[in-house]
Amino acid sequence: MAKYRKTKDEVNRFLEDVKAIILKGTNLQINNKPWKGNRVNKTLTYMAETGISLEDIKNVVYELKLPNYSYTADETNAYFKEEQVWIFGITKNMVDKEEDLYIKLKIRVFENKFLLIMSFHPEEPGVYNKKLEFPYKA
Predict the structure, then answer these.
(1) Cα 35 from Cα 2, distance rounded (Å)
(2) Averaged pLDDT for residues 51-73
């Protein structure tokens, strides 16, 4: 997965679109369905373990700002190889403890823009070999 950094203006425009979709209340989907095979859906597992809801997740995603941006990457799914995913991190108190959250978002354009919350779970530095870095954090 090739990683690259978007400009501050590009990140801010992406987040404006994300927030507009959330406020509209439609065209939003979270990846919380079981996956086929032996792969674990970390978002679904995190929701089940903590009892957090889609509303909780939407509220956290709505709070994202430029300093929470980590990087952008090309989609690895062969069906959507022309699309990009945007990676963010934020520290939030979720169910009585502070957690460094890993959030992966994508906006797909059909007739309208459609927000996919692809990942929402605690950051796992061991999986990615290091913690997320935030190029625009003050």
Answers:
(1) 24
(2) 95
